[in-house]
Amino acid sequence: MPQCLEKLRRIVTVEPAIFFYMTSTFIMLPAYQRLVMDKVCLELYKDSSICSDSEQRETEEVESRSSYILLLYTAMTSLVSIPPAIILGSWSDQAGRRSVMLLPFILSLLSGGVLLAMVLVQNLSVYWCLLAAAFIGLTGGHVSIFLSSFSFLADITMESSSSRTLRMAIAESMIFVGGMVGFLLGGFLTQEFGLVAAFGAYTACHVLAILYILLWLRDPKPINSTLSILSTENDGQESGAVILKYARMSFRAVFKRRPGQDRLKLHLLILCTFINNLVAIGDNSVLLLYLMYEPREFTTAMFGVFNSAKMFLLGAGLLGLFPLLLHCLKEMTLAKLSVVFRAASYVLLAFSTNTWMVYLVAVVGMPGGITQAVIRSLSSAIVGPDEQGAMFSFSASVEATCILIAAIIFNGLYPLTLPTFPGMPFIIMATFCIIVFILMQWISEMPTTQPRLMLQD
To answer: Membrane-crossing residues (predicted)?
Structure first.
């Protein structure tokens, strides 16, 4: 029995942690947006009867002020998360992956407490939501979850490139599976049981994740205790100097000289990560507005079904389609094909005029998640075993900067093109995908200098 348990421990690792985090995130998204609108309405009209009626509540003044506060929330979450993410990756190379993985879940519990208090205490200002955003950002949020999880997988698959890519694809699929479950559950709980139930489920996900990490996960390699690391490095140094040291380690892992063209490969892979994330966030920021506009005229319920179907297919593409295709094609070939299908789905979306065309977009884009899984695997193959956290830390920090940049590009572009061609933002996204395809082709043509790095076409 103990042997079976240990074998299962090697098979099931960080995937449930990613699932719980993404589920909780998508449960919270519609709930906190509605909470902000409710609070803004109450502060403006001082009348709960007006604010309980969605038609009366959704005035231009409520919409504009809520949009401003939601932008502040997004800015707080993304900007605050960048410095911790740069530091925590290098720290996890020495202190262990579990420590870094636990921190976002613990502070997210505090965030859930703040949001629950805002629902239960009517007099609390809407600006308390910024404290909830600060708690999420202080430990890097999803950035820290990703860097610690993918570093963990890189540690346990260091000797096998194909195994590493497959494991990272499965972990990547948990983002979409968790998103699908969270999106459906969040909308149902908010509509049927109210905000307390939604934020309660958000908090429960984090409690389950903490218990899972503590009771199930084991660090893949021997580590020094966190306290001993801090104490030895703090001898004669200020804590600020220690923080700067870990930040320098992240930058050094990415920018140091490497054999052949490996440094350039790593930079190009991180650039691909940046563009992929830019497109994904841009998609989320304008998709609802676009689908609700004529002639598509989606309702909120139709949008929820479409989003859930799209996430399910993306997850199925990574869990089922990708392992099957790996027997026939090389991973770089699959990564490039994935980008082409993703670009085609955005072109189709830009010209969609009815419901069936929009749903066909989800089918065409099904292989779209493969590229990022391959990118993560190739990036981890370039750096050494003691640089995994540092490299993923830098890469994830780059992803965090996309939130504001994508909002500025696509939310700024959409109103300008609305009178002439509303689908233009999706044509821009397809163009970005073609840029990723060109970069991946460039990478595949570079000579391999390390046995770990399998880039053959």
So the answer is: 12-32, 68-88, 100-119, 125-154, 166-189, 195-217, 266-293, 305-326, 333-351, 390-414, 426-444
Q: How far apart are CA 32 and CA 110, in angstroms?
A: 15
Same domain, 305 and 172: no
Global confidence as pTM: 0.82
Higher local confidence (pLDDT), 41 or 114: 114
Contact between 457 and 366 (Cβ < 8 Å): no
Q: What is the mean pLDDT of the chain?
A: 85
CATH of the domain at 335: 1.20.1250.20
- Output 117-125 pairs: Cβ under 8 A, ≥24 positions apart: 118/35, 118/39, 119/35, 119/194, 119/195, 119/196, 119/199, 120/196, 122/42, 124/39, 125/39, 125/43
Exposure string over 85-123, b if 16+ CB within 10 A, otherwise e: bbbbbbbbbbbbbbbbbbbbbebbbbbbebbbebbeeee
How many CB atoms are closer than 10 A to CB 192?
A: 9
Residues recorded for the chain = 457
Of 37, 351, 28, 406, residue with least CA distance to 187: 28
Same structural domain, 415 and 278: yes
Q: Are residues 104 and 162 in the same domain?
A: yes
Same domain, 27 and 135: yes
Domain identity same for 407 and 451: yes
Quote the domain boundaries for residue 117.
1-219
Give the range among 36-50, 167-181, 378-392 with minimum mean pLDDT: 36-50
Q: One-letter amino acid identity for 236?
A: G
Asked if residues 219 and 9 have their Cβ atoms less than 8 Å apart, the reply is no
Domain tally, the chain: 2
Q: Are residues 127 and 173 in the same domain?
A: yes
Round to whole Å and give the CA distance between 154 and 152.
5
Tell me the mean pLDDT in the region 24-30.
88
Q: What angle do CA 77, 80, 81 make, to 5 degrees?
A: 80
Verify cis geometry, omega within 30 degrees of 0, for the bond prior to 295: yes
Give the whole-angstrom CA distance, residue 191 versus residue 292.
Answer: 20
DSSP character at residue 224: -
With a CB cutoff of 8 Å and minimum separation 6, the contacts of 345 are 361, 362, 364, 365, 368
32 and 131 part of one domain: yes
